[in-house]
Amino acid sequence: MGNKLFQEGGPHDIKQIGPDEYTFNVALPKDSDGLVARECPAESCSPGYFKVKPGTGITNGQEYAFCPYCRFKGDPREFTTKEQVRYAKDILEREALEGVDRIFKDALGFDSSGKKIMGGGFFSIEMSFKAPHKRPLMRPFEEEVRRDVICPNCGLDHSVYGLATWCADCGEDIFLVHIQAELNVVRTMLSDIERRRESFGHRVAAKDIENCIEDTVSIFEAVLRAEVRRHLLESKKSTEEIEQFFKKIRNAFQNPRRAEEIFTKEFDVPLLSSLSETEADLLIRIFEKRHPIAHNLGVVDKKYIERARTDEMEGKEILVESDEIESAIGLSIRIFQDIHSRMFGGNKNL
Asked: In Å, what is the CA distance from 211 to each residue of 143, 218, 225, 338?
């Protein structure tokens, strides 16, 4: 046993499988929420970083894992992060150094306390062996990822950046589930408005509502951009062509009517076909309220009056009700379901 570099067993279940071959099992540390980091092996994937909760999703016989951003398909072991590889190597190095110390002590006859006495009587020599100081074992550095979602197909509990598309375990398209999670955050904020009005006053509550409408418009724009990007990638457009397209349209997707023109012209997809004309006009009017909120501290200006075709008084603060945002969310969901089905054959409902 003493002349082996690694001792079998132990916390890492070390096994010798050949003259100079060993296997190790390294348990990867979890974060405070019980999640373990993963990283897409594809160098071109961005952001490529996500987290999964062990014990959820496919727990037995998982043959493949998937990147939620680019759907890279590979062996689950391929998705270890660079920090996790570094951590495993540090453990291996520590075990190897302990093995070298053990072999050295055994070869020179040191006892368990690291001492050896040679000679006796009037003349003796005592030798002692002190192992080098162990370097602290640093756990893997992990990034903060705060968009949580549970796959409705396999039950995987995982976190991603932004609006990802695929489940990291089963590889199914769960884009609409990610959208639902984002919209639920806005709905949760809306449900707390009355409490905050009572606790902090009308201005704070009004600001909360303004933030909710800005978030709703931002989600609408982000969803349309994500759908378009995926469509263009699947159409084999280059990265440069895709970026040029987005430069050309700028922030047009913040306006449902302008977005409809682009979707109809470029992709032959009638963006607002799932809404009646009255519903489409309502959504546009609600979204137009974002302009004075984002650019004029919520005060009505001439540009808003012209764009919204309203008779509201210039200089007056814009009025946004929680019910309006709930309506905008509901109408947006119908649009997302319809265009996702038209563009990618998705039939999952929010």
From this structure: 26, 10, 21, 26
Q: What is the pTM of this model?
A: 0.80
Sequential DSSP letters for 67-109: -TTT--EE-GGGG--HHHHHHHHHHHHHHHHHHHHHHHHHHHT
Of 110-124, 150-164, 268-282, minimum mean pLDDT range: 110-124
pLDDT number for residue 220: 97
**Three-class DSSP category at 321:** coil
Cis omega before residue 68 (within 30°)? no
Give the start-end residues of each E strand in 147-276. 147-150, 157-160
Q: List, in sequence order, every residue forming a beta bridge with 150; answer none if it has no partner.
A: 157
Domain boundaries, the chain: 1-30+82-139, 173-344
Of 263, 27, 5, the residue nearest 139 (C-alpha): 27
CA distances from 175 to 132, 163, 267 (A): 53, 7, 19
- Six-digit token string for 233: 């990638």
The predicted-structure confidence for 166-192, as pLDDT tens digits, reads as follows: 999 999 999 999 999 999 999 999 999
**Amino acid occupying residue 291:** H
**Three-class secondary structure of residue 322 per DSSP:** helix
d(CA 129, CA 120): 20
Indicate the pLDDT class of residue 251, thresholds 50, 70 and 90.
Answer: very high
Task: Give the residue from 316, 263, 266, 307 showing the smallest Cα distance to 284.
Answer: 307
- pLDDT surpassing 60 at residue 24: yes
